[in-house]
Write a structure and sequence with these properties.
- This protein has seven helices and 20 strands.
- With about 400 residues, it is an alpha/beta fold.
- The strands form three sheets. The chain has a seven-stranded parallel β-sheet, covered by helices on one side.
- The radius of gyration is 34 Å and the shape is rod-shaped.
- The relative contact order is 0.09.
């Protein structure tokens, strides 16, 4: 207690950890503000990719800041425990004086006249020993938890290692003039009325989706005003492409019960006024990319009826976004292995329970109480509009209308 440097180095370390925690929190706030500002003015797959890459890093900054602040608090606690133990410990000069007095009393105790004084000196020494032992035991108990530090993990990987291959593929596609529409903005992509040809399986073209099948890299669009049904037990697979539900009221993509739609590295866009209905027992899987409902000028909508939407694959996160459109979740589940971005407006039914089998690292129930958005740090949580009766009636009317038109 007296030979060491004291509590000074521990207090200096605590101050340094405090400063680091403040810097990390400031950096997290700055990143969050920049990402929020960009996503407010920038739409499309590039914006989604940027947000998906930045969000885990912002979360890491915040977690690291919290860990640094906790370490600073522990260092302060350790310093306080030392000061308390130091105050309880008998100073070494006092102990030395007691021992010197004992030796003098013993040396002059020829006739036993110092025997009482010797006993008193020994008793005083035992009291000092007990006081020091109590101080050290208390110090050990207080410093043990304070010295157990929370490790700070490495930052997450925010870049796509396959980006070079994707860039080379994009350059080759641009040189061949086969995917020029993908180089345009998402707004230009939705507003075009050019004639579209049917996409043959495993071909990298721009064409039209008319039903189940496998479509290679490219951009595919449903017919204007038409309804595409993925029949029961069927599947639609789009490889490394974009599937656009045509921006027009009445256009729809219906994934019927027991069917599957998979986009491998693709983007699914619900155009203005169009609808996507995922019926009971069906599955929509988007590996590493996004599901977007565009609403400007019409209000695209996504309806999930007792089904599962899976975003992301492995450690890669997907995104579920609306820009003026709506997401209607009726007893369904949104499951993700990465980060989910939910943007207003959307509605969610509280009438049915979520199936317990649908869980995941970022599972968000489509029924009951929905927590605040786990999206960008620093943004306000989403407030659900719980109008369950009218939402359920709307979904029933939509399915009934499609059945009457021969779509279901």
């Amino acid at each position: 207690m007296y030979a060491g440097p004291g509590s000074g180095p521990m207090l200096a370390a605590a101050a340094a950890w405090d400063a680091l925690a403040a810097q990390l929190e400031s950096a997290a706030s700055g990143y969050s503000a920049e990402v929020s500002g960009l996503t407010g003015r920038w739409f499309g797959p590039s914006a989604t990719g940027m947000a998906a890459a930045a969000t885990p890093f912002v979360a890491w900054l915040q977690a690291s800041g919290i860990a640094a602040a906790r370490t600073a608090a522990q260092a302060y606690e350790a310093a306080a425990a030392y000061e308390a133990a130091f105050a309880m410990t008998v100073p070494p000069p006092v102990i030395a004086a007691n021992r010197a007095q004992l030796m003098a009393l013993i040396a002059t105790n020829f006739l036993g006249q110092n025997t009482p004084a010797i006993a008193a000196t020994e008793a005083q020494y035992m009291e000092m020993w007990a006081q020091d032992a109590t101080a050290m035991y208390a110090y050990a108990a207080a410093s043990a938890p304070a010295s157990t530090l929370t490790p700070i993990h490495e930052p997450p990987q925010t870049t796509n290692e396959s980006g070079r291959d994707a860039q080379a593929r994009s350059v080759a596609q641009t040189a061949g003039n086969t995917t020029g529409a993908r180089t345009q903005s998402l707004t230009q992509q939705l507003s075009t009325n050019a004639t579209r040809q049917l996409a043959s399986p495993n071909t990298a073209v721009t064409g039209e989706i008319t039903g189940p099948g496998t479509y290679g890299p490219g951009t595919y669009t449903t017919s204007q005003g038409g309804i595409v049904n993925i029949g029961a037990g069927s599947s639609l697979v789009v490889g490394d492409g974009t599937l656009v539900v045509y921006p027009d009221v009445g256009t729809a993509l219906n994934i019927e019960s027991g069917s599957t739609v998979i986009l491998n590295g693709g983007l699914l866009v619900i155009g203005n006024g169009a609808t996507l209905t995922i019926e009971s027992g069906s599955t929509l899987t988007l590996n590493t990319n996004s599901l977007v409902a565009m609403g400007a000028g019409g209000g695209g909508s996504i309806t999930i009826v007792n089904s599962t939407v899976t975003l992301g694959f492995g450690s890669a996160g997907g995104a579920l976004e609306t820009y003026g459109g709506s997401i209607n979740i009726i007893s369904g589940v949104i499951s993700t292995t990465g980060n989910v971005i939910l943007a207003e407006p959307y509605t969610v039914s509280a009438a049915a329970a979520v199936p317990s089998a649908s869980t995941g690292a970022g599972a968000i129930p489509g029924a009951g109480v929905l927590s605040s958005s786990p999206g960008l740090a620093g943004t306000a949580g989403i407030q659900p509009q719980l109008d369950a009766p009218s939402l359920l009636q709307w979904a029933q009317n939509l399915v009934g209308a499609e059945a009457a038109a021969g779509a279901v």
